[in-house]
């Protein structure tokens, strides 16, 4: 799985069949499959849709690098009604939509100036 650096909403999954000598690329935008790269490019031009819960979580994520444990404490306090998996799902959705950056066991809210 590869996430585009310049367009963090774009993900490519490459499946290979070594025995058959072939491979196939699958594209996702905001974590949602699209037919091909052309459709992915069109989808990136549309801003990501955020649910009310995603907006609530995004507001809690700091712009500076944060450890997963610290972020978990922040998000848990703000989402006491959501079970652990629901919180993880919301954070993963925000990362898929290019709004969170995850690197070396750290996470932060992505700068709004990043394209895509």
Draw up the topology in text.
Blueprint: E1 2-3, E2 10-17, E3 22-29, E4 32-34, H1 37-44, H2 52-60, H3 68-78, H4 84-96, E5 100-103, E6 106-109
Antiparallel strand pairs: 1-2, 2-3, 3-4, 5-6
Index terms:
single chain, alpha+beta, Arc Repressor Mutant, subunit A, 2 domains, 4 helices, 25% strand
Tell me the total number of β-strands: 6
Q: What is the terminal-to-terminal distance?
A: 18 Å
Biggest β-sheet strands, sense, barrel: 4 strands, antiparallel
CATH top level of the largest domain? Mainly Alpha
Give me the strand/helix succession: EEEEHHHHEE
Assembly state? single chain
Report the helical percentage. Answer: 25-40%
Provide the residue-averaged pLDDT: 84
Tally the helices: 4
Structural class: alpha+beta
CATH topology of the largest domain: Arc Repressor Mutant, subunit A
Poorly predicted ranges:
none
Count of spatially separate domains: 2
Q: Which band does the percent of strand residues land in?
A: 25-35%
- Global Rg: 16 Å
Give the overall form: globular
Order of strands in the sheet with most strands: 1-2-3-4
Indicate the CATH architecture of the largest domain: Orthogonal Bundle
